[in-house]
Amino acid sequence: MSQVSEINWFHRHHGHIAALRMRCGCQDNLYPAWQPRHISPTIFKGFRKAMNQGIQQVVGAYVRLRNVTALLEMKAHRKELLARALDTDQFSLALSRDLCRQDLAAIEDGVQDILKGGTLRGYVDHIKPHTIAGWAQCVDYPEIPLRVELYFDGRLVGSVLADRYRQDLENANLGSGNHSFQFKPDQHAFLAAELIEVAAADGKLLHGGTLKRTTAASADPPLLALNPSP
């Protein structure tokens, strides 16, 4: 399926979803404060599956087009809708929150897919049982937070966005300085692991991002060590 036909398919699919939502008693066709009427669990299950397929299709199309701006606009929109659905006593709003979070996860995955195709850089300041910290950035999209992943003995145990502010990063002309990250690993799992690795979104290890239990931390020359994270 071509990029254009994929996007056109999504629009046709979105119309079908909108019709389904109207039959389910929704007030509009884009994440309203829901007021469902007599909806069976089967219909809900089918609706959620259709919504997930729709968002996956449009995110995939934007990734192929490398349109990160559109994905960021979608992300901001879903965050705004999520902020509106604050009433935890209403089932309808709880479902709206669930759908928004589902969309946000898919959109963030799409953003990271685009970033990992760019030029990535970063440095791990320290790897300790109580904290693992450093910085990471995509040169092509310097102000979009880059995902950093933590591995214990080759197993992914967590990920975090490098979006924390550090004055030394800004002083080094690395954009706004909002590019640092910090993991707080499970200390028992940390001490039990023989190999600890910190990688960027493209799967490549960051400089200084390896600790072997039988050796000192990675001796890779620092790309930019700067001041250690607190």
Describe the structure in your own words.
The longest helix is centred in the N-terminal third of the chain and has 25 residues, at 41-65. A 4-stranded antiparallel sheet has the order 1-2-6-5. It is globular. Helix content is 43%, strand content 22%. The chain is built from 6 helices and 8 strands.
List the helices and strands and how they pair.
Layout: H1 3-23, H2 41-65, H3 68-84, H4 91-115, E1 120-127, E2 132-138, E3 146-152, E4 155-162, E5 164-165, H5 167-171, E6 178-183, H6 187-192, E7 195-199, E8 205-212
Antiparallel strand pairs: 1-2, 2-6, 3-4, 3-7, 5-6, 7-8
Helix pairs in contact: 1-2, 2-4, 3-4
Produce a short descriptive summary.
With 230 residues, this protein is α+β, with helices and mostly antiparallel strands. It is built from six helices and eight strands, in the order ααααβββββαβαββ. 43% of the residues lie in helices and 22% in strands.
